[in-house]
């Protein structure tokens, strides 16, 4: 390892979930010196939150709702935050009504003016579902479950806005994540653990990075310091194509434009998020007070407009993009002193808990490597 008198054991690029979890583990568990750099003026990556001018806690990069089935992930993060139980609910604006999404028993009954039971709605789905020989695309996933009409009303327009492509052009994984329910469960997620950091994500990240062995540099592109400050191993959480100077071409991402507004009223909408699958240029509106539980006379919301250009948010799931990524992945595997972690570095759509789980797994491997080197040094010393 580096002589820590003048350098760092680890240079970590990016202070989001992947980088911050690894910084915390390496510093607290192995006593290593870590420098974490981020080109943005804040820690927390896209999960960063702050109080706006009205004094309302908002998520500048759109709503981040924490949910996980992993006790390991939840217990790990619980070291750095208390939690507020919160179960996210989403309504979709369809045919002049606000209807539960994921599609459930109430969605079907209210949309079609029916009074079906859970058993009958199963039969209803079976009667409208289209037979698909081989499920290849996002369209196939939905029409094979709930038929063409529900697909057109709830999925097709939303997906076209979000991805700039028809669902028939997109990999099945995009809509495979969205369940369909035959009961009245209107929660957006069904995970075991559903909660929000009690004092916000930024406070949680501050607690995570509050260690004497961790130094944080913001407003810094890692390329500015990579040859100036000594380090032994790099953890890179940025876009993998940018690391290799786009030598195989640019990996496509969908981006988002956010418009934040504050209204002098107690509530703007009945739930945390309302989707707009067919009308307007935005895909959804989220109201933060539902999500954070904050009490305030005013309320702040965010409108989300998908974009082709801008900060990278969603890797585009098409076979040809995976082919490009595989070229970068092969290059990444050749590097002994750089580890690629997180959504952008591995070109995969991960939820927050999945990034934490990935970072903890990577830490396990780095720890084994570190302990192996210590044993070698001890053997040589003998």
Can you describe this structure?
The protein is an alpha/beta fold and 382 residues long. It contains twelve helices and 17 strands. It has helices spanning 17-30, 71-77, 105-112, 118-128, 138-163, 173-176, 201-208, 222-225, 240-243, 288-292, 319-333, 352-381, and strands at residues 8-13, 34-37, 50-51, 57-58, 67-68, 83-85, 90-94, 97-101, 193-197, 214-217, 231-236, 253-263, 273-275, 284-287, 299-307, 314-315, 338-340. It has a seven-stranded mixed beta sheet with strand order 8-7-13-14-15-12-16. It is globular and about 80 Å long. The model has no long low-confidence stretch (mean pLDDT 95).
Topology, please?
Elements: E1 8-13, H1 17-30, E2 34-37, E3 50-51, E4 57-58, E5 67-68, H2 71-77, E6 83-85, E7 90-94, E8 97-101, H3 105-112, H4 118-128, H5 138-163, H6 173-176, E9 193-197, H7 201-208, E10 214-217, H8 222-225, E11 231-236, H9 240-243, E12 253-263, E13 273-275, E14 284-287, H10 288-292, E15 299-307, E16 314-315, H11 319-333, E17 338-340, H12 352-381
Parallel strand pairs: 1-2, 1-11, 2-10, 7-13, 11-17
Antiparallel strand pairs: 3-4, 5-9, 6-9, 7-8, 12-15, 12-16, 13-14, 14-15
Helix pairs in contact: 1-12, 4-5
Keywords:
382 residues; alpha/beta; Rossmann fold; seven-stranded mixed sheet; five-stranded parallel sheet; 36% helix
